[in-house]
């Protein structure tokens, strides 16, 4: 099963997707907007892991409202933003 996935169009799309995340981090590093010690691959894994886990949990547990989902997305995005910039971002700062 895994071997078929790694040769599939879905895997090609997935690698392009995570490549984009790494490129965004590299741009942030080059511009000085991100802390210099941020590793693009590690951040990519944190990003994908956090949002994949949240999405699976929502699918399995059937969340109460869309507002709950958006609030969790905002909180996760704020934490990841803080991790790469060292700056606190509040939900109200959108």
Give a short synopsis of this structure.
The protein is an all-alpha fold. The protein is built from four helices and no strands. The chain has helices spanning 2-6, 9-31, 40-61, 66-85.
Description:
The protein contains four helices and no strands. It has helices spanning 2-6, 9-31, 40-61, 66-85. Helix 2 (9-31) packs across helix 3 (40-61) and helix 3 (40-61) runs antiparallel to helix 4. The protein starts with a helix and ends in a 9-residue tail after the last helix. The mean pLDDT is 86.
Descriptive terms for the model:
mainly alpha
Low-confidence stretches: none
Order of helices and strands: HHHH
Shape label:
flat
- What is the count of β-strands? 0
What is the SS-derived class? mainly alpha
Number of helices: 4
Residue share in β-strands: under 5%
- Give the fraction of residues assigned to helices: over 70%
The rounded distance between the terminal residues' Cα atoms is 42 Å
Mean pLDDT: 86
Radius of gyration: 16 Å
Major beta sheet summary:
none
């Amino acid at each position: 099963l895994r071997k078929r996935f790694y040769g599939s169009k879905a895997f090609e799309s997935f690698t392009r997707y995570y490549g984009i995340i790494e490129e965004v981090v590299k741009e942030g590093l080059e511009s000085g907007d991100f802390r210099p010690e941020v590793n693009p691959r590690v951040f990519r894994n944190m990003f994908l892991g956090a949002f994949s886990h949240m999405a699976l949990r929502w699918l399995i547990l059937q969340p109460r409202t869309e507002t709950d989902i958006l609030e969790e997305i905002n909180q996760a995005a704020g934490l990841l933003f803080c991790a790469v910039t060292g700056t606190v971002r509040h939900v109200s700062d959108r």
